[in-house]
């Protein structure tokens, strides 16, 4: 599909696939990358392994929800900015709708400890393991890159912080520039980007303008909506490390001010763990508690807007730079480091918080085998995970 041949059907396909992922992608950002890899790389072949890994590496650099940015990036590569919007809406709206409804009925039900949640966590184990297996075989083919991945694993597990992740990627890039230039080839990838640098510059400029202007406006104008938009925008713009890292920022913004009680905050956090899609949609819950359905929608737009502006603002330059020999060498090493980061995240928190008993491990192996060897679709794996999660307490 190119700039001139996109049809309504092409855009519809982008939206439908993203929506299916939004309905079935449980397990947090690392699991989301696994689901994306399975759907966009393995099944649809919209990107090759290298293009996908490059996109993941870019999104690891940027603040905001990395998995959502990867999804937006895939949509942009496939269908331009409108494709990115559709990919974002499809992936995000299911959990936004659920969390808005939950906020409207927050005192009437609780699903945070439901047994099927554990089954969905085991689904995440299987999906991430499958993604790592595929990415690892392609992106760490030699001993040098395996060593980079091992160092990344050790560093991430011994020094668990967002800064560690950034240092690992920068360090890997330097190693790649120095040692991997001769390994890098100019092979064409399946990813073709139809996004101008002018649009990118406008987008990145708007990101910084809003970051500066909104706090000033919230002080000058006594408006709940401007203050709320500012708080969510800054939270989305200044956080590295994904949804779990943004939670303390949101608590600091809204609980001490009395906009939401700590009990309401924790109830929403429990619900956010139970829904598919990005954890940043927790903002929809907070916004709904504060300002009803309109508040939930405003909060969702505000917290994801920085991620959208950043991916549009950086992707065209990233796409161009990756064709230079030094940059390609850097990407070879960075991709290997990303594999290590994913493996570390697979262990902590996914594995150690999920595989607690022997039956958990057996169920995870079954799901992995169905996915990897029997090629069972991911949505079927999710259904089996839900049923298995409810059955496990009785085994």
Automatic annotation (TrEMBL):
Pfam families: Chromate_transp (PF02417)
Major place of residence: membrane
Membrane-spanning intervals of the chain: 12-36, 81-104, 116-135, 147-180, 200-220, 232-250, 285-318, 330-350, 362-392
Key word Cell membrane present: yes
Membrane association type: Multi-pass membrane protein
Keywords assigned: Cell membrane, Membrane, Transmembrane, Transmembrane helix
InterPro entries listed in its UniProt record: Chr_Tranpt_l_chain, Chromate_transpt
Compartment(s) of residence: Cell membrane
Family that this chain belongs to: Belongs to the chromate ion transporter (CHR) (TC 2.A.51) family.
Protein name: Chromate efflux transporter
The species this protein was found in: Gracilibacillus marinus
Lineage: Bacteria, Bacillati, Bacillota, Bacilli, Bacillales
């Amino acid at each position: 599909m190119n700039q001139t041949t996109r049809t309504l059907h092409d855009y519809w396909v982008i939206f439908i696939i993203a929506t299916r992922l939004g309905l079935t992608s449980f397990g947090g950002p690392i699991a989301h990358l696994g689901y994306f890899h399975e759907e966009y790389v393995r099944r649809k072949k919209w990107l090759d392994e290298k293009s996908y890994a490059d996109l993941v590496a870019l999104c690891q650099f940027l603040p905001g929800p990395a998995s959502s940015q990867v999804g937006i990036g895939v949509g942009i590569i496939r269908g331009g900015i409108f494709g990115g919007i559709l990919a974002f809406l499809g992936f995000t709206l299911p959990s936004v709708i659920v969390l808005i409804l939950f906020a409207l009925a927050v005192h009437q039900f609780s699903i945070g400890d439901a047994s099927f949640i554990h089954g969905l966590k085991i689904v995440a184990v299987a999906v991430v393991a499958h993604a790592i297996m595929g990415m690892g075989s392609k992106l760490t083919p030699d001993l040098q890159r395996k060593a980079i991945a091992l160092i990344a694993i050790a560093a991430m597990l011994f020094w668990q912080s967002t800064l560690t992740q950034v240092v690992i990627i920068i360090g890997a890039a330097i190693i790649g520039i120095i040692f991997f230039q001769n390994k890098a080839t100019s092979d064409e990838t399946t990813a073709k980007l139809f996004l101008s640098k002018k649009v990118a510059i406008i987008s990145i400029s708007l990101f910084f303008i809003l970051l500066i202007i909104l706090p000033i406006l919230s002080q000058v104008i006594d408006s709940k909506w401007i203050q709320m938009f500012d708080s969510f925008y800054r939270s989305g713009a200044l956080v590295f490390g994904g949804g779990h890292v943004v939670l303390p920022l949101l608590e600091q913004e809204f609980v001490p001010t009395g906009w939401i009680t700590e009990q309401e905050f924790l109830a929403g956090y429990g619900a956010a763990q139970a829904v598919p899609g990005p954890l940043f949609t927790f903002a929809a819950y907070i916004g709904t508690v504060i300002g009803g359905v309109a508040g939930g929608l405003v909060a969702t737009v505000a917290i994801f807007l920085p991620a959208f502006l950043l991916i549009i603002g950086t992707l065209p330059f990233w796409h161009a730079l990756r064709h230079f020999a030094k940059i390609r060498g850097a990407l070879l090493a960075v991709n290997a480091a990303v594999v290590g980061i994913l493996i570390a995240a697979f262990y902590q928190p996914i594995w150690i918080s999920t595989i607690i008993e022997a039956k958990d491990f057996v169920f995870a192996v079954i799901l992995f085998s169905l996915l990897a060897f029997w090629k069972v679709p991911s949505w079927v794996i999710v259904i089996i995970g839900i049923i298995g999660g409810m059955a496990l307490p009785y085994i």
